[in-house]
């Protein structure tokens, strides 16, 4: 992991990232030369039609998958070619995931689900410290009253809030959010979006994939993907304008 | 009916799509059910099937016990005069026959084969309903003391030695100087009761009058001979106890009168016990059968849990297909029948394979284990086997169908269609998976543990040092006619000539006119002078070369010298075990027995292959007329059977070659049971471990697959590979541990239930064997935990999350 000379405010920097899926007969370019920079406190949405590469981009952003080409930095650390375990370590300390289908573990209680990233952390925390931190995060999503419940005893919206608490628990550099309202009714969806907005207002950096234009508009920076390439980067345009 | 055929066709087409699944089921179930059917048939024949003789339950044989003054049984064989007294005076049996088992060299054939020969009285054929394929059996013309030299051949002998010659009744067979006219051949289907030893098949039947007991021994009230046998059909309605009492008094009263003048037999007595044929033939094989059954049932259980797992995975895989069936109106019952027709078809095919394998098993048992197990000749696919086979098809088809269908939540089936595989499909419950792991580990641990014990024990017996050397040695037995008076000297001269000839061969290093060290020791009656104390050690006739040849060490005193043998001196050598009995704190040297017999040496005791202890033994000076020799060859040298036959012919026309075998081969034969046990237990252990590895891998692989999404999530939030390996091991450890505990309980039950049989196996070494077993099974379990997981954790996390999200 080498340090790059980037702005210390930059959380994510991607240069010329591409992803090609190869089969015996076919080569699919899921992402083409993506350049992307996300700064601290940003709220970025990535939207686009089905199959445009949103999920692939998010997987690479979250170190769940490797790019075929290009360079990728998280908080100035080059994470392009990490081993599986190194990637896991970075995911644990710097990335918080929120999935469309919540991905909570049914056998574990709400508390244990939220505490899970801390248990995988390289820096071992005391039980007391874990408890304090988990309760803090549950308070942030207004779920402190459901600590001992199992996920399947909760509503979809509640489950997603637990998932948000889990994503926050290790103080990540960025929250990666994948269609957070996809499995929720509109009321619960709105609640979840409110939580995310509030978190962003308090300084959390968020990058969200969604196909819902209403929610995409809630982000300050909106990227549109089509056939694996970014169509507009208004933020960059704005910055250029500002510079001129 | 058409519905049934339609379902079978559908089942066939569905299975054809999955050849590897079908192959796994057929191989696993075919092999294990084959073994099950083979052993079940054997158990049925040995335990339930009546013997193939008329009124078989009334057929009895008699055990003759020579009981010493301390009420210990000294010998279990008949003395000739007692047998004759019983035969002539008993009233308990309506029909009776006498048998003497022996072997003879067929001198009328060029290759001079040695044939097993049984001397019988005519009733033998009637009692056992031995029908002739050609000619007649023995009749009044062959009654006792008629001395009519005729012979009846077994079908096998007619085929092997006479190529089924249709003119066989015009032929004769000659055994050492006596020509017997062949009067009949027994039917091929006749099964001889193996009363003397398992696997012993008579090749030629000769009239009782010609049996090998010498004139002298026919009058000896104290010399017993294990080859003498009495059989009879019960003619009175009395209990066994009453019969034993009446026969004991018949024989013992007369015997006491006959031996009243002999000091040695003071306070000795005769006890008679009758045994029905079935118990004699079965012998101690019942335990072996139960052990075999337990082993094979264990294998079937492992196979079942493996296959159950395969069926469960297949049902999970078929959920979409089943959902479509349900959506177009298939009832729950219909779905069960759909699955049943598949399991039924697979089990039918498995059982067909199993029947073929069972037949192969029968062949192996008949050809390699006929001396270890009784009645194997009767093994064939019979009504019982077929019924068991059908039973297996029905039972296993229903069991697997039930198990598979139990997984289907009919009401939730439509969800499978709606969700299109979004993770709401059929899953095997955690409890079922756990139970499968526990069962698998429990059975496998118990089986592997038992097999390692058996393997180690037989290897120990095979490798235990015997205390003597038999390298490069062969044993030669010469065929001679029973010596009549005045013939001893000429036979001794012939044997001396042969010995000289053998010694002059460049291949031979030494010759000893002795019985093989591997041959059974005879029982000798010794009474110590002065004290009148009686002993019955094992006895063997040897010459002065014997101990040096086999390198059996002398502890004190001397070996025999040539003069002892030449003059037939009354001296003997004892082994250290017997010496200790004779003189616990001093020396046995110089002790006198039976008048003038003196102990001149003490040798270190030797252990015979397959025996667990060293017994008290005495060695006597042989006579030059003794028809046995040991040959020691120079390194790398040997003499063929043909060469030996030529030398015998050159030496004397009186002698024939009766037996010639390398001592190492004889040793291997004596250790056959141990070798068989070692090979069988090792193969069973390996097969069990193999099946366990497949089974555990199957279950754990399935459960890991089921958790793929969860594992993906854990990876996404930063779990490292080691964390997940530890997690899977930790999650499965309780089931594996419960499996171990269950196996301990099973083993404990076995050890407590069969403690008297297993007492020899219970020692401190069990702990190390247990440790090895636990290590092996533990290792396999760990492997089964890790291996399926590796495909998930060794790829980027997104692959684990894909498909589920």
Automatic annotation (TrEMBL), chain A:
GO molecular function: ATP binding; ATP hydrolysis activity; transmembrane transporter activity
PROSITE patterns xrefs: ABC_TRANSPORTER_1 (PS00211), ABC_TRANSPORTER_2 (PS50893)
Highest taxon of the lineage: Bacteria
Keyword Plastid annotated: no
Pfam families with a match to the protein in the record: ABC_tran (PF00005)
Keywords: ATP-binding, Nucleotide-binding, Transport
Gene Ontology cellular component annotations, sorted alphabetically: transmembrane transporter complex
ABC transporter domain: residues covered: 12-244
Family per similarity comment: Belongs to the ABC transporter superfamily. Macrolide exporter (TC 3.A.1.122) family.
Name of the protein in its database record: Putative ABC transport system ATP-binding protein
Automatic annotation (TrEMBL), chain B:
Molecular function GO labels: transmembrane transporter activity
Residue ranges crossing the lipid bilayer per the database entry: 21-47, 289-312, 343-364, 379-403, 436-455, 675-700, 735-754, 766-789
Membrane topology category: Multi-pass membrane protein
Intracellular or extracellular location(s): Cell membrane
Record GO cellular component, one term: plasma membrane
Family statement: Belongs to the ABC-4 integral membrane protein family.
UniProt keywords, alphabetically: Cell membrane, Membrane, Transmembrane, Transmembrane helix
Record-annotated ABC3 transporter permease C-terminal domain positions: 296-408, 683-794
Main subcellular location of this protein, as a coarse class: membrane
Name the UniProt record assigns to this protein: Duplicated orphan permease
Pfam families the record matches: FtsX (PF02687), MacB_PCD (PF12704)
Domain MacB-like periplasmic core positions: 24-248, 446-642
């Amino acid at each position: 992991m080498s340090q790059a000379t980037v702005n210390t405010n930059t959380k994510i920097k991607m240069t010329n990232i591409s992803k090609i899926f190869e089969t015996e007969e076919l080569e699919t370019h899921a992402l083409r030369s993506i350049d992307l920079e996300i700064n601290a406190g940003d709220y970025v949405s990535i939207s686009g039609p089905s199959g445009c590469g949103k999920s692939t981009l998010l997987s690479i952003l979250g170190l769940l998958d490797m790019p075929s080409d290009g360079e990728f930095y998280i908080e100035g650390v080059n994470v392009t070619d990490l081993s599986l375990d190194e990637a896991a370590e970075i995911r644990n300390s710097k990335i918080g995931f929120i999935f469309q289908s919540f991905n909570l573990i049914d056998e574990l209680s709400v508390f244990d689900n939220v505490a899970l990233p801390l248990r995988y952390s390289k820096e071992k925390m005391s039980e007391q410290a874990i408890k304090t931190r988990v309760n803090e995060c549950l308070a942030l999503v207004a779920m402190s009253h459901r600590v001992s419940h199992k996920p399947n005893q909760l509503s979809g919206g509640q489950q997603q809030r637990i998932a948000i608490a889990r994503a926050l628990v290790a103080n990540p550099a960025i929250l990666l959010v994948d269609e957070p309202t996809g499995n929720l009714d509109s009321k619960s969806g709105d609640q979840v979006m409110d939580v995310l907005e509030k978190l962003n207002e308090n300084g959390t950096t968020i990058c969200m994939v969604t196909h819902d234009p209403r929610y995409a508009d809630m982000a300050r920076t909106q990227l549109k993907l089509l056939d694996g390439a970014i169509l507009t980067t208004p933020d960059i345009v704005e910055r250029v304008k500002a510079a001129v | 009916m058409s519905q049934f055929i339609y379902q079978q066709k559908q089942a066939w087409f569905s299975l054809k799509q999955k050849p590897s699944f079908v192959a796994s089921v057929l191989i696993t179930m075919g092999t294990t059910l084959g073994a099950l059917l083979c052993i079940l048939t054997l158990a049925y024949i040995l335990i339930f099937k009546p013997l193939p003789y008329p009124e078989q339950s009334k057929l009895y044989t008699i055990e003759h016990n020579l009981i010493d003054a301390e009420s210990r049984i000294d010998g279990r064989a008949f003395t000739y005069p007692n047998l004759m007294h019983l035969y002539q005076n008993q009233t308990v049996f309506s029909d009776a026959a006498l048998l003497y088992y022996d072997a003879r060299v067929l001198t009328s054939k060029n290759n001079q084969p040695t044939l097993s020969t049984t001397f019988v009285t005519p009733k033998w054929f009637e009692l056992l309903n031995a029908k002739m394929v050609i000619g007649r059996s023995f009749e009044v013309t062959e009654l006792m003391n008629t001395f009519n030299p005729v012979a009846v051949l077994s079908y096998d002998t007619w085929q092997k030695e006479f190529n089924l010659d249709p003119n066989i009744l015009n032929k004769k067979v000659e055994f050492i100087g006596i020509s017997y006219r062949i009067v009949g051949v027994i039917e091929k289907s006749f099964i001889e009761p193996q009363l003397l030893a398992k696997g012993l098949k008579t090749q030629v039947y000769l009239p009782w009058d010609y049996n090998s007991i010498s004139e002298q021994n026919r009058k000896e009230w104290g010399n017993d001979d294990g080859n003498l046998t009495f059989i009879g059909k019960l003619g009175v309605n009395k209990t066994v106890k009453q019969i034993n009492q009446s026969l004991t008094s018949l024989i013992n009263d007369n015997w006491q009168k006959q031996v009243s003048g002999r000091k040695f037999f003071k306070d000795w007595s005769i006890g008679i016990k009758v045994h029905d044929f079935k118990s004699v033939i079965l012998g101690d094989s019942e335990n072996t059968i139960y052990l075999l059954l337990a082993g094979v049932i264990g294998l079937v259980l492992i196979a079942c849990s493996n296959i159950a797992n395969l069926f469960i995975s297949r049902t999970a895989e078929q959920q979409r297909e089943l959902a479509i069936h349900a959506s177009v109106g298939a009832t729950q019952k219909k779905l069960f029948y759909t699955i049943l027709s598949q399991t039924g078809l697979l089990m039918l095919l498995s059982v067909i394979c199993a029947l073929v394998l069972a037949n192969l098993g029968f062949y192996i048992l008949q050809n390699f284990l006929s001396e270890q197990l009784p009645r194997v000749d009767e093994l064939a696919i019979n009504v019982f086997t077929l019924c068991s086979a059908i039973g297996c098809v029905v039972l296993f088809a229903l069991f697997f169908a039930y198990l598979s269908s139990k997984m289907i939540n009919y009401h939730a089936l439509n969800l499978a269609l709606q969700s299109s595989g979004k993770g709401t499909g059929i899953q095997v419950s955690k409890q079922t998976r756990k139970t499968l792991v526990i069962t698998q580990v429990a059975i496998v641990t118990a089986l592997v543990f038992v097999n390692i014990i058996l393997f180690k024990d037989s290897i120990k017996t095979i490798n235990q040092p015997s205390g003597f050397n038999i390298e490069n040695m062969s044993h030669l037995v010469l065929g001679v006619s029973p010596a009549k008076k005045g013939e001893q000297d000429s036979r001794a001269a012939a044997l001396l000539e042969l010995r000289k000839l053998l010694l002059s061969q460049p291949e031979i290093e030494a010759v000893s006119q002795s019985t093989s060290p591997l041959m059974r020791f005879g029982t000798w009656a010794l009474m110590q002078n002065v004290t009148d104390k009686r002993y019955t050690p094992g006895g063997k006739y040897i010459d002065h070369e014997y101990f040096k040849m086999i390198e059996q060490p002398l502890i004190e005193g001397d070996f025999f010298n040539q003069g002892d043998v030449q003059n037939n001196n009354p001296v003997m050598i004892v082994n250290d075990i017997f010496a200790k009995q004779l003189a616990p704190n001093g020396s046995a040297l110089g002790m006198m027995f039976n008048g003038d017999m003196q102990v001149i040496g003490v040798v270190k005791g030797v252990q015979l292959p397959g025996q667990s202890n060293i017994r008290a033994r005495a060695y006597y000076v042989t006579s030059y007329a003794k028809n046995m020799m040991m040959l020691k060859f120079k390194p790398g040298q040997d003499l063929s059977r043909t060469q030996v036959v030529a030398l015998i012919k050159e030496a004397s026309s009186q002698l024939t070659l009766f037996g010639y075998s390398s001592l190492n081969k004889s040793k291997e034969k004596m250790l056959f049971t141990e070798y068989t046990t070692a090979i069988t237990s090792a193969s069973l252990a390996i097969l069990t471990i193999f099946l366990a590895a497949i089974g555990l891998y199957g279950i754990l692989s399935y459960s890991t697959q089921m958790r793929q999404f969860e594992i993906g999530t854990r990876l996404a939030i930063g779990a490292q590979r080691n964390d997940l390996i530890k997690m899977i091991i930790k999650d499965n450890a309780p089931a594996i541990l419960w499996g171990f505990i269950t196996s301990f309980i099973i083993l404990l039950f076995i050890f407590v239930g069969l403690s008297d049989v297993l007492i020899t196996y219970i020692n401190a070494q069990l702990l190390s064997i247990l440790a090895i077993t636990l290590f092996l099974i533990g290792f396999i379990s760990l492997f089964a935990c890790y291996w399926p997981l590796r495909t998930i954790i060794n790829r980027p996390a997104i692959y684990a999350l894909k498909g589920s999200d």
